[in-house]
Amino acid sequence: MRIKRALLSVSDKTGIVKLAQFLHDIGVEIISTGGTMTAIREAGIPVTYVSDVTGFPEIMDGRVKTLNPKIHGGILAVRSNPEHMAALEKHDIKPIDLVVVNLYPFKETIAKPNVTEAEAIENIDIGGPAMVRASAKNFRDVIIVTNPARYTSLIAMLQQYGDADIKTRKTLAKEAFNHTSEYDAMICEYLTKQLVEGK
């Protein structure tokens, strides 16, 4: 299955422009959000703003941007299920084949001296984990990458085969669930500490 459409939305921008350039060069449509989109666009690479896909603006200081059926339908549709594919067509949703997401820097935020609870809470990612988990659930149809260290091997694999094999897809899905579980554990630990300290 050739990758036709990718969603790139990362907190850690390491290597993202190089990956976007490669994807563009092989004919992949790129959709993106906020700072990631700006970085890609400034490098002169064509990119579609996620709000132009959803038909809905980013609202509530970016708290709500990717939580939309145009995104999650495109990720979660099982390509071999005729009913899923009919639903995509009926609702004018295009499949998303590759999702590259890493989450808001919660760990780095709470490590800052005198960080406020409000700052910490604003660095709890919601849309990111939802996209990561949706992509990992549908790993047979969607490649999910949460670690910038994976970009080079992904590029090499797509260059050679135009796709990722099932073992790679499953490995990346496992890494994705590990990424979200560690993230949730950090938030849990932070809130536990707050309670212990009586805050």
TrEMBL record:
Domain MGS-like: 1-146
One Pfam family per UniProt: MGS
Keywords assigned: Hydrolase, Multifunctional enzyme, Purine biosynthesis, Transferase
InterPro entries named in the record: MGS-like_dom (IPR011607), MGS-like_dom_sf (IPR036914), PurH-like (IPR002695)
Gene Ontology terms for molecular function: IMP cyclohydrolase activity; phosphoribosylaminoimidazolecarboxamide formyltransferase activity
Gene Ontology biological process terms from the UniProt entry: 'de novo' IMP biosynthetic process
GO-annotated cellular components: cytosol
Cross-referenced SMART domains: MGS
Listed name of the protein: IMP cyclohydrolase
